Amino acid sequence: MFVTESTSFVSTRGEYEINKEKGYVSNIGPYTSDWGPEPGKDWEQIVLYPYLGGTFVWTGFDYRGEPTPYLWPCVSSHFGIMDICGFPKRRILCISGCVDQYTHCAFIPALELAGERREPH
Known about the structure:
By secondary structure, the protein is low in regular secondary structure. The chain has helices at about 45-50, 90-100; strands at about 1-5, 55, 110-115, 115. It has one domain (about 1-120). It is built from two helices and four strands. The strands form two sheets. Strands 1-2 form a two-stranded parallel sheet. A two-stranded antiparallel sheet has the order 3-4.
């Protein structure tokens, strides 16, 4: 048995600030899907119930259409664990850390500009 559409990675690869004008969603929040837990948290059910064989993240790739969380003129979904070109997003480490034997570490840029500290949105 598999869990389907368990979570989504609502983000834009390589972006760490929200920019509604350009249609960018930050990789460090605050967007999560309404239909499942945060990425990585969905594996708690897989571990808790041994009869579950895995999970299917909605979706594997971003795609054209269903622009979320933005509307027109944005034309892309931001659901995937990979962007439209197939490059992995930072949050794919949430899944990788659960399914392989390696230790994972992610570096994100400091949120500083011209010496001024900024908080993520």
